[in-house]
Amino acid sequence: MATTYKDYYATLGVPRDADQKKVKSAFRRLARRYHPDLNPNDPSATERFREINEAYEVLSDPEKRRRYDEVGSQPFGGNGPFGGGAGPQVEYRTGTVEDFEDLFGGADPFSDFFHDMFGRSARGPRTARPRRGEDVEGEVEISLDEAYAGTARTVELSTPSGLRRIEVRIPPGIADGARVRAAGQGGEGRGGAERGDLFVRVHVRSHPVFRREGETLYVRVPVPVDVAVLGGEVTVPTLRGTRASLRIPPGTQNGARLRLHGLGMPRHRGEGHGDLIAEVELRIPEVITPEVRALAEALRRSREGAPVG
């Protein structure tokens, strides 16, 4: 039975003497219009895209185009000069067959006309090419304490075979917005290929006491006025859950920043920790006793240059 002739020039809307540039331009314009991804609920657009792709496969290949032009509109079928298995074994290579088979749900992307003219693969029905699974992304939220010590989260993925639960290890020092990779935990591969990867983006919540900038932590530390004036020591909280001793130099001003080395965030890449910066907040006594008032007045006279006493 004869196969219906297909006018590839009419399909792309170009004249028979169109050069490769015009053929390519017409294909791109039509492909953008009828691509299945842009017309998910329109079977006619999918079929139109199939025809456009087939026409471009032939007209963009000089040898295929020459043979097509020689045949013209003569009917031919399985017993014709280009029919059945007698023809040359030419396989589709524009964008890879597998890519277009994916678009068409695994179906053959070419018509009988195309196969009668250019032959079918001697391997018979096409088998799925091994293809690595897709990468999958997810999100989790952790506290700053967990970011300091490291933690784990269970991520749930919905798959064709059911729900998968994957425990993802979050290393110490992880930055807000960074991604953690769980190799081989993504989408299933095709044809025996390996799975894709799972990437989990980590969001670190703000802390009520500490502020983070990279590997450096900041914390406000109340310092009594007498310690700021005369010098002394205060204790500073750390994310380790301990308190560190901080030396206050005489004459320390409000807002001064004093550094405690190695008490900041763990370095995500590398060894050791960043620093902890203590921001001084001078504290005035809440109860002004006669003694406190006398000392304050003496300080005022000293500041104004008046004799003390």
Descriptive report:
By secondary structure, the protein is α+β, with helices and mostly antiparallel strands. The protein folds into 3 domains: 2-118, Orthogonal Bundle (Helix Hairpins); 136-204, Sandwich (HSP40/DNAj peptide-binding domain); 210-304, HSP40/DNAj peptide-binding domain. It has helices at residues 8-12, 20-34, 43-59, 62-71, 97-103, 112-118, 144-149, 225-230, 290-304; strands spanning 2-3, 76-77, 136-142, 151-159, 162-170, 179-182, 198-204, 210-213, 216-224, 232-237, 243-248, 257-260, 276-283. The strands form 5 sheets. Strands 8-9-13-12 form a 4-stranded mixed β-sheet. α2 (20-34) runs antiparallel to α3. The chain is elongated and about 110 Å long. It starts with a strand and ends in a 5-residue tail after the last helix.
Q: Given the helix and strand composition, which structural class is it?
A: alpha+beta
Radius of gyration computed on alpha carbons: 37 Å
Question: Helix and strand string, N-terminal first?
Answer: EHHHHEHHEHEEEEEEHEEEEH
Total tally of structural domains: 3
**Share of residues in helices:** 25-40%
What's the mean pLDDT score? 82
Number of strands: 13
Shape: elongated
In the CATH scheme, the class of the largest domain would be: Mainly Alpha
Can you say what the CATH homologous superfamily of the largest domain is? DnaJ domain
SS field, number of helical segments: 9
Strand order of the largest sheet: 8-9-13-12
Task: Report the sheet-strand fraction.
Answer: 15-25%
What's the architecture of the largest domain in CATH terms? Orthogonal Bundle
CATH-defined topology of the largest domain: Helix Hairpins
Gap from first CA to last CA: 123 Å
Which stretches are low in confidence, meaning pLDDT under 50 for 5 or more residues running? Answer: 75-97, 122-126
Main sheet: strands, sense, barrel = 4 strands, mixed
